[in-house]
Amino acid sequence: MNDDETLKLVESLQQEIVYLRGRVDALESNQQMNQPEGLPKTWLLSHNYFKRAFGVYGLSLVAGILISIPFLCLYLLFFLALGVGGYLP
């Protein structure tokens, strides 16, 4: 390869790099502005930190309540059994 061919190859590669960098920048800016298709609109996917934090807290709170309901029912049955058993002769 002579110097002219090498110089042309380097210039074409530099042009391709500039083109690809522009495409990546455009895709990144478009991705930040729009939510990807197919994903639900939820606070867990928000760009705002506090929305994400409260979304996680809310889901954790609801999950804790749902998990504790069966245990509360068992405790209630246990205490009712003890209470009724205490009044029997």
Please give a structural write-up.
The longest helix has 39 residues, at 49-87. The chain is mainly α and 89 residues long. It starts with a helix and ends with a helix. It has two domains: 1-34; 40-89, no CATH class. It has two helices and no strands. It is rod-shaped and about 110 Å long.
Contiguous runs where pLDDT drops below 50 for at least 5 residues: none
Q: Quick one: biggest sheet?
A: none
Q: Distance between termini?
A: 108 Å
| Number of structural domains | 2
SSE sequence, one letter per element: HH
Range of strand content: under 5%
Structural class: mainly alpha
Structural Rg: 31 Å
Query: Judging from the principal axes of the Cα atoms, what is the shape?
Result: rod-shaped
Helix content: over 70%
Q: Report the count of strand segments.
A: 0
Number of helices: 2
- Which whole number gives the mean pLDDT? 86
Summarize this, please?
By secondary structure, the protein is mainly α. It is built from 2 helices and no strands. The chain has helices at 3-33, 49-87.
